[in-house]
Amino acid sequence: MAGAHPGEDGRDVVVEADASAAYWQHRPDNTLPPPDMMGAYMRNRPVPDQRVAGRRAWIIGSGIAGLAAAFYLIRDGGLRGEDITILDALSVEGGSLDGAGTPEDGYIIRGGREMNWNYDNLWDMFQDVQALELPEGYSVLDEYRLVNDRDPNYSKARLMHRQGQIRDFTHFGLTKPQQWELIRLLLKRKEDLDDITIEQYFSTGFFETNFWFLWRSMFAFENWHSLLEMKLYMHRFLDAIDGLADMSALVFPKYNQYDSFVRPLVDHLQARGVTVRFGARADDLAMRVEGETRTVTGIHVRTDGRDEIIPVGDGDVVFALTGSMTEGTAYGDMDRAPLLERGRHDPGEDSDWTLWKNLAEKSPIFGKPEKFYGDTGKSMWESVTLTCQPSPLVERLKDLAVNDPYSGRTVTGGIITFTDSNWVLSVTCNRQPHFPGQPKDVLVLWAYALLMDRDGNHVGKPMPACTGREILSELCYHLGIADQLDAVAARTKVRLALMPYITAMFMPRAAGDRPHVVPKGCTNLGLMGQFVETSNDIVFTMDSSVRTARVAVYTLLGLAKQVPDISPVQYDIRNLIKAARALNNNEPFPGERLLHRLLGRTYYAHILPPLPDLEGPPHGSAQLELKHLLGSRRQALNAIGASFAQIRGYLRSPK
């Protein structure tokens, strides 16, 4: 069983929970809570035993997954920080969680992080990490709650079109057949969706709905990406669907992702003796194979052009990142377009994909990395960081902002997406300052686009061929201020990041393409990040990275502790009902008025969203709906039978 190990009493200890795999019930031999429940009872700390003493840990990659592995090795595993070494090919921690620059040269961030309250693994870690700007004893989670509880997030200009007009985004714009397409997707089994793309499943009209523009721009999905991954996202964020349009379901950090998360976590680890070794690219692992077991005995590392093998001793553990979202990033600026150096179908040997490629050559248990890096045309998009002083762009931003951009409060509340942009261009201004020490008259904006092969509406060129000034021109065009470009450009610095693998983890995949966190037979190797298999979680989130590290640590150290499955909100009847209302364009869904009639005077009335005002008595509307739904008794039975037959047919069909 993946994510399990023998406990002290001989029974398997399940580390990676899977709430969708089996029925849970109270019984004498089950001491664990339901596998998707996260609460204070899960905060227990295992007592280290002889299996931990004297061990060393080697972690390849200092992104959030690598840092989380070090954190859990110390907090729950009982390892000493001095016995943990992190290897990284870069010269700074954080991996894809970056943020750097100055107001003189311009700031740069390759991406941002949208989060919600049920990132249980992330908050489990950061509730024990000291906040940098609060008194001793207050955590990063405390700081996060302080910021977001005082300043709730929402957007008043989520979708725009026609060179500066706000498009109505108060509903998803889904027809009844399109709503059924989404419901059928939720009902389908994961195992039936191998290698199916989103565009193979949905009807053509679906891709012009508000729902798809909101969904694709928020999560960075393309039409040709994995339908399975979209399904997993729908389950993961079912509780947030009614806040998808205005982004009221989201919470954001105070600063950029590097200063908000990486800096305090690195300080926490270094204070406990963890070593980070920079400029060291690990590209292969030496292994001892004995029957079905594999044990890492050495790490092949290249530093400053020199090759070495770091010996891995008996009892030591190794944690490695597979693949990289931001590998091979090409940079540009106001006057230079990015120059991509990675091959379209192979990243080459000097890349962060090399380790996974070499592992996959040893055994099929390590997956198929080529499924993810093999077509950069389908996994690439470009991001833009704008460092802005007062200009017509800032004045236009004020019209679209929830609060004054200089107030320190929520500005745009997330990305603004231009639905008639050939690039599917989006722009956002988060709380300012976005960097500690940022001058008061400077704003940092971030923009990105999804489609890299289409000519811009205004500049007439694909985005990767454009300089920063040309992209700024395209943005001004969609904001309706193209005639003021010169004034904007004189007060704006633009830095570009073209990332060939930024959505590689969304590429269509099948069972076995991604390795398990602890591949079958591996005695001391755990794999982490966005390209490993988990039971029900998604990719492209900080929480999923932390989850993989946590599963790896608990499994390899043999800890009697479980990593809970994703939050059980997808099973909550309240979330199911409000999601149904949201998918029905905020109108009562079929049967909802009848539910109000049945439950309106009961203890459970509060699970139902309020009904819109109606002409005539509510009970009359419920009776009409009941008559419409059921008709005569015979018609009712026929309707029920037909519905079950229809659902069975939907589940069996590929669409």
Describe the structure.
- The protein is α/β, with parallel strands linked by helices.
- The chain is 28% helix and 15% strand.
- The protein is built from 18 helices and 20 strands.
- The strands form 5 sheets. An 8-stranded mixed β-sheet has the order 8-7-16-17-18-15-19-14, sandwiched between helices.
- Helix 1 (64-75) packs parallel to helix 8 and helix 2 (120-126) crosses helix 14.
- The mean pLDDT is 91.
Short description:
The protein has helices spanning 64-75, 120-126, 140-150, 176-187, 198-201, 210-219, 227-236, 257-270, 354-362, 370-373, 392-400, 468-479, 485-489, 542-556, 573-583, 592-599, 618-630, 633-652, and strands spanning 4-6, 12-14, 57-60, 84-87, 100-102, 106-108, 159-161, 165-166, 275-277, 280-290, 293-303, 306-311, 317-321, 330-333, 381-388, 416-418, 425-428, 443-449, 492-499, 525-528. It has 655 residues and is an alpha/beta fold. The chain crosses the membrane at residues 57-74.
